[in-house]
Amino acid sequence: MNSRYSRQELFIGKESQKRVQDGSAFIMGAGALGSSSAEMLARAGVGELTIVDRDYVEWSNLQRQQLYSEEDARNKLPKAVAAKNRLQQINSEITIHSLVSDVHGLNIEQMIKGHDVIVDATDNFETRLIVNDAAVKLGIPFIMGACVASYGTMFPVIPEQTPCLHCLLNHLPIDGMTCETVGVISPIVQMVAATQVTQVLKILSGEPVKPLLKSLDIWKDEKAEINVMRLKNEDCPTCGKERTYPYLQFENQTKSDVLCGRDAVQIRPATTRTFELSIFLEGLKGTATKPVINPFLLSCEFEDYRMVFFKDGRAIVHGTNDTKVARSTYNRFLQFYAE
Ligand SMILES: [Zn+2]
Q1: pLDDT digits (tens, 9 = 90+) for 215-274
Q2: Which residues pair with 153 in a beta bridge?
Q3: Which listed residue, of 9, 57, 251, 334, carries a Cα 20 to 30 Å from 219's Cα?
């Protein structure tokens, strides 16, 4: 017996431990939920982990995003990269892939295919629905999880068995609240992540999971568990008889979106192209101030905004909630890039 996993193996059994070590999990998002899930899965010995995130580490993350350090925040390291660095320190025997990328309907299938299970650790419902479509299409179990303030909710989507997220859309209690507007406390993150990771370990071990929509308010001491099988909708465009997977369609892809509560807009270019950040920085000399550069992104003050520009041309424009303003600023910013 490998003593590293001996306590877990005593509980789940030798066969299941082998399945866990042969298994793979995709972690969608490296914020609070993603950090917590990823650390548990790495310690549990899941053989292959992929973690994707579009953002970088900031000081306000350190209160609950357990994989990150002050140094990561100082260096504005992309979360996926900082997460991988830390996870590899925790367990060097597993394979970890990190993707610094925005997830959308046109790249999601490529990212998740081949994985045994997907952990939802996104911070917005649009992305959850994109993942839901792709997971059902490819037949990969998807463990939904969300939390805000002291409240959390979780549900396992098992393709061809349970209802999917789309079926439950009108029944999910989470509304427009976000962690940026009403805050969040770390214990609820840990509870949601713990429930999600339990489902992952059961799925990898070959154990059945129950179709329960669980919700919990850890501050008010309230909880609910609902069996949602009756909500499986025959007419669901994702898991019903006639499937169109609406969130994977090109016309439903947003090119710019307001990062809720953050006074920032993300711009995603229509074309795929790689930028040399050092060349860009050179072009911005005399125009941009307070530049910070690392191998993944370039951050600087430009006009009245703080621009965070990634190698793939994606940018986060801080200081506005107006997508038009953000787009035009982005376009003026790009003019300083000369190849
Ligand atoms: Zn459905």
Answers
A1: 999 999 999 999 999 999 999 999 999 999 988 886 556 577 777 677 899 988 766 678
A2: 146, 215
A3: 57
Residues 6+ away with beta carbon under 8 Å from 31: 53, 55, 61, 65, 79, 121, 123
Please tell me the distance between residue 165's alpha carbon and the centre of ligand 1 in angstroms.
6
Q: For residue 283, how far is its CA from the centre of ligand 1 (angstroms)?
A: 49
CA 69 to centroid of ligand 1, rounded, Å? 39
Q: Is the pLDDT of residue 141 over 70?
A: yes
Residue 179 designated active-site: yes
Tell me how far apart the alpha carbons of residues 71 and 131 are, in angstroms, rounded to a whole number. 31
Chain position carrying tokens 């805050």: 183
Cα separation, 303 vs 320, whole angstroms: 12
DSSP structure class, residue 253? -
> Predicted confidence band at 299 (pLDDT cuts at 50, 70, 90)?
very high
- Ligand 1 centre from 65 Cα, in Å? 31
* Ion ligand 1 — residues with CB < 5 Å: 164, 166-167, 236, 238-239
Rounded CA-CA distance 299/333 in Å is 12
Residues of 168-197 as b/e, b for ≥16 C-beta within 10 angstroms? bbeebeeeeebbbeeebbeebbbbbbebbb
Nearest by Cα to 78 from 318, 294, 304:
294
pTM (predicted TM-score): 0.81
pLDDT digit string, tens, across residues 195-205: 999 999 999 99
Long-range contacts of 168-172 (CB under 8 A, 24+ apart): 168/213, 168/228, 168/231, 169/129, 171/213, 171/228, 171/231, 172/213
Least confident of 15-24, 261-270, 324-333: 261-270
DSSP at 119? E
Catalytic residue among 147, 164, 167, 179: 179
Question: What's the CA gap between 251 and 220, in Å, rounded?
Answer: 42
